[in-house]
Amino acid sequence: MAVDPIAHDGRSPRVPSGETTRVLVELRRPALGDRVAVSHLDPAAQRDYVASLNGEVGALLGALRAKGVRLDGVVQYARVWHGFAATVRTADTPKVQALGLRVEPVRRFYGAVAGGRPPAGARPEVPAGPPGRAGRPAVALLDSGVDGRAPAARGRVGNGPDLSGGGPGNRHGTVVASVLSESLPRSQRILSIRIAHREGDTGGRSPTESTTTDRLLAGLEHAVDPNADGDASDALPVALVAVNSPYAGFEDAPEAKAVRAAAGLGTLVVAPAGNEGPGAGTFGTIGSPAAATGALAVGATAARTRAVPRVDVGIVSPGRRAIAHGILLGGRLRPMRLGATSLSGSSEASPRGAAGATGESLLQYLTVDARPKARRRLVVVPLRGRGGAAPPLADRAAAAAQAGAGALIVCNPEGGEPLAPLPAGVAPRLPVIGVDGHPARALLEAANARGAVAFVSGARNRSGQSRGSGARRYSSTGPSYTLAPKPDLVADGTALVSARGGVAQFESGTSIAAARVAAAAAILHSRRPTLRPAALAAALVTTARGAGGRLADGTGRPNLSAAGRAGILPSTATLAFPAQRPASTWTAHVDLLVANTRSTPAVLRLTAVTDDRVHLAVFPNQFLMAGRSTARVIVTASAATGIPSYATGGIAIRGPGAPITVPVAVPVETPPSPVIGRIRLIRNARAVAGVTFAAGSVRRGRGGIAVQALRSLTLALVDSRGATVHELTPVGGAPDVLPGEYSYRLPGTTARALHGRGYRFRVTATGTAGGSASAESPPFDHP
């Protein structure tokens, strides 16, 4: 019995519809990293425990094979997760579930890097730090592998195991490794653990490098135990998991459990928040594994840009007139009058070309067959095409110059993300102008009319653009599905990366931002090697420089100097209250543990930084702590009816060393109920052969597309009395279900066993932040 999604988001994982599927089977005993006081186990005890977990998996595998269950490609886990991965026949999954084990399909994870628009002056930040320990890598990079011939990675990256299953592709891993190498001191090295490979080119888009849950788990197992002897005392201090699974950030997902277990063994996991922000055409919250408790989730901010001149542009066409104020992004500009075109229709050299092709790819405009329209004209193009694609601005400028255009205007009607200047040397003679907001839309419409004429002023009044403080619009924002405040930190999300052959290319994405934060974590660990992962994360988060909104920018950018001097550290990087209901006045209390990391006594002074929507208080607010001790304080949050949905604040603590501020989050909302559509019966002749239904929802808004995923989805066949005849949790106890149409067909053996009247299918869905809903099909008879 299997439930197969038949309509899904194009990038998202889906349950295989064939005869076999790759699943993860979780056993009940805790993994090594989940053992209580695992840090006190000696190497022999750790090896013995890992051997016992592997023995338990081996016995289970033997029992399943004895039942006739075929298991291919088995991979066992014991250090960060206890269980195994295997490819099984879909029809055999009920036999595995019958043992009371949690079974779920593997999901896909994608690299969070895409070609970006190049901000002038952007250079990777290179934080200064002390030399790392010779011979031991500072960071494990779990990605698609690294091209050792890339200039930035040469001599800095050591190759670990290839867990990707083979195949081509190392572009994403090479880009991330280059940024990581540039951000680390020369003496610190990187261990590349290949878990992803190229999936191929589909739909005219770039090849995608992706991985699956089972490979990610195997990569973390190696990061915490590089020599694979069962003793995790050689765990690397930082693991950068540079991939992301959108719409999958759940606390009990296998990779979320693995992140927490890795921390128990001494490895801090840093991960990108994801590139599903509102500017990417979809709005998704923090992806996995960044959403996991214990993971350091990193969002991307705008990079440094130089001062740019302002330009006035006007376009006149029959019946239309548009005026806009833009900025000169590149090239030389003088006042001019010239014809204007948007290149939105078929070109004169290709009259049968598709109409409305205004930016899906470079082949649809500013190519050889665009010259009859582009030559000596002002070319107006949108920032993004109909599918949300945004070819790099440098490529557009070069193509426009080749087509003989007099000037190029790039319009961003959405606004919200400043267009960045071109680097020196890209189409130096072609004026390239950027326009945002409603005037951009008016320019596009006016330029699309026949006979349009443009007037362009000279450059004037240089306008300074400093480092952006807010998150890039592609960067996924919080809270997470569990209403946790994420991301934790932000960093520049754009980098100039040197490729083979001396070619420099700009890249952008939250993976690049995560690489910079992973480097900061590794440097901080080299300065304070006694800090465990939770304290390492807390030091970075509570001393960060504020960047903007908490749910978009976290607590800001890492401040290594302050993090290295902080003598008082909390037990958790962020203090999150349980979700409160807004129906009445409420008061909630949580405990905050703080540690004095120094050997001398310290006087602590605590102050609540209160959000104007929620009142925070702390008790006691001043006390004396002994050296190397821990104290408990009580934080109280209270508010009245009608408080907005998510409030943030902080607890400022002054003691020895740098002051810290522990971020506090108070979600005040009623989680939305999951959505189940009408259940329709599938008939074969007169007999019912199965059922189809929709689950989840997609809401469209000005900010993009909001996807309401489901935490779990179950389907049961019940008789006329309501008793369950047959039940199945769709391959995976909790498959992180995306919205879509789902179908189910009765297996022949089940159908033949049914006789009677009043059978119904019952669908039950659980929401991502609580709440549930159920629906039933019309009753039917089975002969």
Q: What would your notes on this structure say?
A:
- By secondary structure, the chain is α+β, with helices and mostly antiparallel strands.
- The chain is 17% helix and 33% strand.
- It has 13 helices and 46 strands.
- The strands form 10 sheets. Strands 9-10-8-13-15-16-25 form a 7-stranded parallel beta sheet, with helices on both faces. A 7-stranded mixed β-barrel has the order 17-18-22-21-20-19-23. The chain has a 5-stranded mixed beta sheet with strand order 29-36-35-31-33, with helices on one face.
- Helix 3 (171-183) packs parallel to helix 9 (510-527) and helix 4 packs parallel to helix 5.
- It is globular and about 80 Å long.
- The model is unreliable at 1-17, 116-134, 201-206, 345-369, 463-469 and 730-736 (pLDDT under 50).
Strand content: 25-35%
The overall average pLDDT, rounded, is 80
Helix count, per DSSP?
A: 13
Shape: globular
Broad structural category? alpha+beta
Describe what is shown at a glance.
With 783 residues, this protein is α+β, with helices and mostly antiparallel strands.
Jot down its keywords:
13 helices; alpha+beta; single chain; globular; 783 residues; seven-stranded mixed beta barrel; seven-stranded parallel beta sheet; disordered N terminus
